[in-house]
Amino acid sequence: MLDKLLRIILHQRLLVILGSILLLGAGVIAWTHLPIDAFPDVTNQQIMILTEAPGLTPTEVERLITFPIEIDMGGLPDVRQVRSLSKTGLSQVVVIFEDHVDTYFARRVVFERLAQIKDHLPQGIEPELGPISTGLGEI
User: Fold this and answer.
1) Which residues face 45 on adjacent strands?
2) Fewest Cβ atoms closer than 10 Å to its Cβ: which of 13, 71, 85, 134?
3) Please, what sign has the CA dihedral across residues 53, 59, 65, 66?
């Protein structure tokens, strides 16, 4: 069986070359029409809140700024997780929403909640929303 196939391939070289070119052409056409992104964005929906607090130690930043923001953001609709990072003079709170939540809806809800809690933060401290970006955007 294999001998017969090899014999046909060797005697019909033009047919084999033509078939190979057709297969190669079909493969190139299929490859150019693939609807797959090279680097699909599989990160979650997240909103970053940055707050500068000059002159405060990490412990003070955590107690006076980060913790109150975390507590209030935890009650938002469709929130999956709230993470934070407190450094000298800087508080970063990341609110992670469910995947189906719209970016602009999430930003609006977080912004509205921030407006409510500004009175509970130390005077002169203004939390800001980070830019619209994904986890891949930070790389």
Assistant:
1) 97
2) 13
3) positive
Residue bearing tokens 């407190």: 86
Under DSSP, the state recorded for 136 is G
CA distance 100 to 129: 20
How far is the C-alpha of 68 from the C-alpha of 77, rounded, in Å? 18
Amino acid at 37: D
CA atoms within 13 A on the CB side of 118: 11
Q: Quote the CA–CA distance of 122 and 71 in Å, as a whole number.
A: 16
Q: Is 87 helix (H, G, I), strand (E, B) or coil?
A: strand
Q: How does pLDDT run along the chain (139 residues), one tens digit per residue?
A: 888 888 888 888 898 899 999 999 999 998 888 877 666 667 788 899 999 999 899 999 999 999 999 998 888 888 999 999 999 999 999 999 998 898 899 999 999 999 988 888 888 889 999 888 766 655 5
Instruction: Give the residue from 54, 60, 69, 71 showing the smallest Cα distance to 115.
Output: 69
Q: What's the topology of domain 45-133?
A: Alpha-Beta Plaits (3.30.70)
* Tokens 């412990």 found at: 59
- Write down the pTM of the prediction: 0.68
